[in-house]
């Protein structure tokens, strides 16, 4: 094994992980250090294993990898869950999210509008409430 390159070691580790046909497969950055062609091969193997009914828990820094391979994604930052959902939910291709909260009547919303991304709509549907509608990926309107 000492004579193998980093990519070859990574592929060998993946082969050893699946050779026993596990029911649950834990993979930590399975395509790290691989060239693009090898990465696609790893993804195809993970998809095949998943399609065979194996539960795959995968860690990755590659969002395209998570989007292609995952049914559910949990984003962790500094040890805390900051977002979770399907890849479609987290990439904004899912439904928009509406957050409503009560505020004092005629609250100045200038600071709120300035702090939020431009595609976030802030309105005053009722005299005592304010709503913020944004794609669920933003996380900006969460209480």
Automatic annotation (TrEMBL):
<keyword id="KW-0547">Nucleotide-binding</keyword>
<dbReference type="InterPro" id="IPR003439">
    <property type="entry name" value="ABC_transporter-like_ATP-bd"/>
</dbReference>
<keyword id="KW-0067">ATP-binding</keyword>
<dbReference type="InterPro" id="IPR050763">
    <property type="entry name" value="ABC_transporter_ATP-binding"/>
</dbReference>
<feature type="domain" description="ABC transporter">
    <location>
        <begin position="2"/>
        <end position="31"/>
    </location>
</feature>
<dbReference type="InterPro" id="IPR027417">
    <property type="entry name" value="P-loop_NTPase"/>
</dbReference>
<dbReference type="Pfam" id="PF00005">
    <property type="entry name" value="ABC_tran"/>
</dbReference>
<feature type="region of interest" description="Disordered">
    <location>
        <begin position="119"/>
        <end position="143"/>
    </location>
</feature>
<keyword id="KW-0813">Transport</keyword>
<protein>
    <recommendedName>
        <fullName>ABC transporter domain-containing protein</fullName>
    </recommendedName>
</protein>
<keyword id="KW-0046">Antibiotic resistance</keyword>
């Amino acid at each position: 094994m000492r004579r193998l390159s980093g990519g070859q070691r990574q592929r060998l580790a993946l082969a050893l992980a699946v050779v026993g046909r596990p029911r649950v497969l834990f993979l930590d950055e399975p395509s790290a250090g691989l060239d693009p062609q090898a990465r696609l091969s790893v993804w195809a193997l993970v998809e095949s294993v998943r399609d065979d009914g194996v539960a795959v828990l995968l860690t990755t820094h590659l969002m395209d990898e998570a989007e292609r391979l995952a049914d559910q994604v949990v984003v962790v930052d500094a040890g805390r869950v900051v977002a979770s959902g399907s890849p479609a939910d987290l990439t904004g291709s899912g439904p928009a999210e509406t957050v409503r909260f009560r505020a004092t009547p005629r609250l100045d919303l200038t600071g709120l509008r300035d702090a939020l991304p431009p595609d976030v709509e802030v309105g005053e549907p009722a005299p005592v409430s304010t709503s913020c509608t944004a794609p669920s990926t933003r996380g900006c309107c969460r209480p």
